[in-house]
Amino acid sequence: MRPWLASGALALAGALSSCGKGEHAGADAGVVASASASAVASAPAPERAVPGADVPEPTPPPSSARACPPEMMHVPGVVCIDRWEAHLVDKKTNAVLSPYYPPTRKLAVHLEQTWEKERFTIGGPVAQATPVPPLPAWQHQIDPEPMAVSKPGVTPNGYVSGVIAERACQNAGKRLCKHEEWLTACQGQEKRQFPYGESYKQGACNIFRGKHPAMALHDNPSIGHLDPRLNLVKEGSDPLLRPTAATATCKSVWGDDAAYDLNGNIDEWVEDEKGRFVGGFFSRSKRDGCLSSVRAHGKTYFDYSTGVRCCRDPEAPAR
């Protein structure tokens, strides 16, 4: 399949949009690839923390005083929000879905099979030898019911549409964040534009990286945005997509608690009739911090850089 025949994957996706979005200009379901072996690592187990990226989970208050579930940060009077970007599991079996494929069986299988062939059509021998991450065997056989799980030290799922993001949060007993809630959480108690301060600081959050994964894989940042290898690209030894909370300086603080990676790492869908994701992903070349927002796509759109974190209403503490 060539870039100009990418509509096949769109048909399988249902209603996948292919309009441009900044760094994703020309984003499509293109399934062509070349690669640099030095840019791509083999796929880690999605549930395994990367060494050195372990982040201790905060000790929640006693259940009688808790307004939010243990994995969520409480923004007083506003919202409970996941501390970490979501990885997805099947609600029925709790099996972990690969973070490198959309959580739809037919499309995931199609992309794996297509890229296994198309990676040999562009690039040199080393590039063509770069493997496609394996799709778990169970995902070849079962249509998963995606559920969002928030925990530190895991690879968050990309390839998530706004429709799937909403469903994954609902399956977790939560919901998509409203943009105002998300923005308030990101800016922190001090109401700063960036989670860490008033002005942009390169490297404080995982954004504006020096490498774009589609450029590394395809020699073109505008094509092949459903390549399962994109979120395995590295800059030196540092993965472009990091495990949740691996960027310790990128935390939005409320009281004694914090949420991580609200700016950077992966874009996050929020509630919007027309579709909206916020926060920016690792290679987005913008320095607007918590104000980063994309509204160029409908809710059915997805690519390697779109993920989710969930919200819910706080509960009144028991007296």
**SSE sequence, one letter per element:** HEEEHHHEHEHHEEEEEEEEE
Head-to-tail CA distance between termini: 62 Å
Give the overall shape. globular
Secondary structure category: alpha+beta
Q: What are the segments in which pLDDT stays under 50 over at least 5 consecutive residues?
A: 1-53
- Which value, in Å, is the CA radius of gyration? 19 Å
- Main pleated-sheet profile: 4 strands, antiparallel
What is the number of beta strands?
Answer: 14
Tally of individual helices: 7
Structural account:
By secondary structure, the protein is of the alpha+beta class. It has one domain. It contains seven helices and 14 strands. The chain has a four-stranded antiparallel sheet with strand order 1-2-14-5, sandwiched between helices. Strand 10 and strand 11 (277-278) form a beta hairpin. The longest helix is centred in the middle third of the chain and has 14 residues, at 105-118. The chain is globular.
